[in-house]
Amino acid sequence: MDAERYDLIVVGMGPVGLMMAATAGQAGCSVALVERHRSLYGLPRAGHIDHEIMRLLQSLDCHEPVLDDCYPTLEYVWVNAEGETLLEFDWGAEGVCGWHSDYMQYQPILEQALLDRITADPKVTMLQGWEAVELEQDEAGVDLIIDRTEMRPGEPMPVTTGERRRLSGEYLVGADGARSFVREVLGIGREDLGFNEQWLDVDARKKRPLDLEFDCGQICDPRRPLTVLPLGKHHRRWEWALLPGETREELERPDAAWKLLAELDVGPDDVEIVRQIVYTFEARIAERWRQGRIFLIGDAAHTMPPFMGQGMCSGMRDAKNLAWKFDLVLRGLAPAELLDSFEPERVPHTRDWTVMSLEAGKVPCTTDPQEARERDERFRAGWRPPLPDVPKLTAGILHREADGSISAATGDLGLQARVRDGERLGLLDDVVGTGWALISVGPDPRGALDERAQEVLATLGMRIVAIAPPGRLPARPDEVEDVDGAYLAHLRERDWEAMVVRPDFYVFGGVVARAELPDLLEELRLQLGLAATGSDELAGRKAPVG
Ligand SMILES: Cc1cc2nc3c(=O)[nH]c(=O)nc-3n(C[C@H](O)[C@H](O)[C@H](O)COP(=O)(O)OP(=O)(O)OC[C@H]3O[C@@H](n4cnc5c(N)ncnc54)[C@H](O)[C@@H]3O)c2cc1C
What is the spatial distance between Cα 395 and Cα 342, in angstroms, rounded to a whole number? Predict the structure, then answer.
């Protein structure tokens, strides 16, 4: 069987595989995207996305349809059986990525936007209706055998037909979900973080506007914990915890959903149920996310309870993290060792979100009345679940201080705010584009860059974004007006004159004065392993990955 060659093979066309193909295709990699179904799943799972994911969609020009259907929720509220507020999340806050901190959306719209993007991208070959069945790798690459599938009467899943093709790639990414075939073939186990709760999920299309007393949040009533969520403007989700003794079979009968909905005064005249399914919410992390040339991302690498709405978001971050690294490695600009930074960067970040989802999830999952009373008392006394801070990058390709430590603001998400160039007013990425950026205030940073630093900029295609204060018209082509003064405030807060931001929006590092920029860029060159023409006097600053 002749092999069809690609830079990258992606297995799985869920939201994370779609994001992987879209971002890698955008970076210029040739991608084969393999999915055993002939079409997208077409039903929602993830409802919530945050500002970082909206920026990611923006960078692919996929955000408009998602925004059009987003529900204007501004609060995510958790109450007890008496209606007292236990926890409250402000979802209307301004996110650092230039969007609201949080959105409730309808996943099929998001997936369709990504599908449209990759359909129009000649670098991406879509192989829908093909199942990955055999996988091998050696030092030269990865070989994948795929088998054509078809639907047969009475079979819930596509079945293979025996018609086979061989794909070969430099790298392969398993984005094939929680029961990942790729993970199985590699024999990679999963750590179980100890959450195991069954909930009935009912998704419905609204037939008419609904006037709901409780709009978006968790009703932590031990008699029957309930999640109430909007899924974009036209759909709704309700989730009920299964009570001790209840079975999946009972709760998946249509009359069970209507009975529970009737208790909320919602009936068939109000909504059409599009999906009714019992999920087991779990928290599992694969022991390794990479083996040689093969990577695991999304649910194949990690699953978490949905209470913070971060499962898919985390998978999309995995994809973006890999995409820019594949790009540099496949173009021969950086050595393959750059890919070693994927796990140290992504695992702790995802683990933090998993722990947060798990600790928060314990609040509504209480079905014992006494325990719930004690929980409510603790909340009244000011107790809060031990939630870690919203995670940032803490390892990998990040600027180190002379003592090897990472400074407080390094590894944060970089700011996206409104700017104006000669003609356009808009968010930074729309006005100046995406990718590596050197953002600076004060005099032209070019004056501080030596030849080697200029070379790093040229190799990475790093844009210089010189920030002019509000009200001052940009004087040079790379200058933009900081319309709201946000960049000036952001950099002043960090005591930085300039910062370098990675293509996945995370801050590599900042400098107090422009004169330090050559050192910062040299450190970046060393960490990325970019080829250099000059001396390696900063080699001691090369950060160990991890
Ligand atoms: C009730 C619920 C609510 C949630 N809410 C949120 C939320 O609000 N926000 C959030 O971010 N996340 C949320 N999540 C999590 C989110 O839905 C998942 O993390 C996300 O869907 C995972 O996407 P994925 O692409 O990794 O995997 P999947 O969506 O599972 O896609 C995997 C794909 O791989 C294909 N595949 C598998 N094996 C093969 C093979 N051998 N060959 C070819 N194709 C194959 C499958 O057919 C499938 O299409 C929620 C989850 C649930 C269950």
Answer: 10
Q: Looking at residues 304-332, what average pLDDT do you find?
A: 97
Bridge partners of residue 84, in order along the sequence: none
Residues 297 and 176: their CA atoms lie apart, in Å, by: 8
Q: Among 39, 312, 356, which residue has the most ligand 1 atoms within 8 Å of its CB, making it the best to mutate? A: 312
Give the mean model confidence (pLDDT) for residues 344-373. Answer: 95
* Residue 17, amino acid: G
Query: By mean pLDDT, which of 157-166, 309-318, 537-546 is the weakest?
Result: 537-546
Cβ(180)–Cβ(135) below 8 Å:
no
Residue 423 pLDDT: 84
State yes or no: pLDDT of 74 exceeds 80: no
pTM: 0.96
- Strand 507-511 vs strand 498-501: parallel, antiparallel, or unpaired? antiparallel
Task: Kindly state the average pLDDT of the residues 186-211.
Answer: 96
Query: For residue 179, how far is its CA from the centre of ligand 1 (angstroms)?
Result: 10
DSSP E strand stretches across 327-474: 418-420, 425-427, 437-441, 463-468
CA 235 distance to own-chain centroid: 22
Quote the ligand 1 centre to 303 CA distance (angstroms): 9
Sign of CA dihedral 103, 106, 111, 117: negative
Q: What is the distance between the alpha carbons of residues 369 and 376, in angstroms, rounded to a whole number? A: 10
Which residue shows structure tokens 């025996």? 162
Q: How far is the CA of 92 from the centre of ligand 1 (A)?
A: 26
β-pairing verdict for 226-231 and 235-241: antiparallel
* Confidence (pLDDT) at 405: 93
Token code pair at residue 35: 């999915």
298 in contact with ligand 1, CB cutoff 6 A: yes
Q: Is the shortest distance between the CB of 238 and ligand 1 below 6 Å? A: no
How buried is 257 (Cβ within 10 angstroms: 0-12 exposed, 13-18 middle, 19+ buried)? buried
Q: Establish whether residue 312 lines the binding site of ligand 1, counting it when its CB lies within 6 angstroms of any ligand atom.
A: yes
Question: What DSSP character marks residue 45?
Answer: -
A 10 A CB-CB count for 161 gives 13
Q: Give whole-number Cα distances, 143 to 1, 132, 162, 337, in Å.
A: 11, 10, 17, 21
- Which DSSP category does 20 fall into? H
